[in-house]
Amino acid sequence: MTDQEPLRVLIADDDAGMRTVMRKIIAKVEGFTLVAEAGDGKTTLELTEQLKPNVVFLDVEMPNMSGVECARAIQDMDPAIVIIFATAHDTYMGDAFEVYAFDYLVKPFKVDRVIQTLERARDRLLRRDVRPVGAPVPAVPRAAEGRLMLRHREGVSFIDLQDILLVQREDRATVLYTADGGRYVTGDSLAEMEERLHSDAFFRCHKSYIINLNHIKDITPYGRWTYVVRLENTKHDALITHEKYEELERMFR
Question: Residue 166's closest CA among 152, 151, 183?
Answer without folding.
Answer: 183
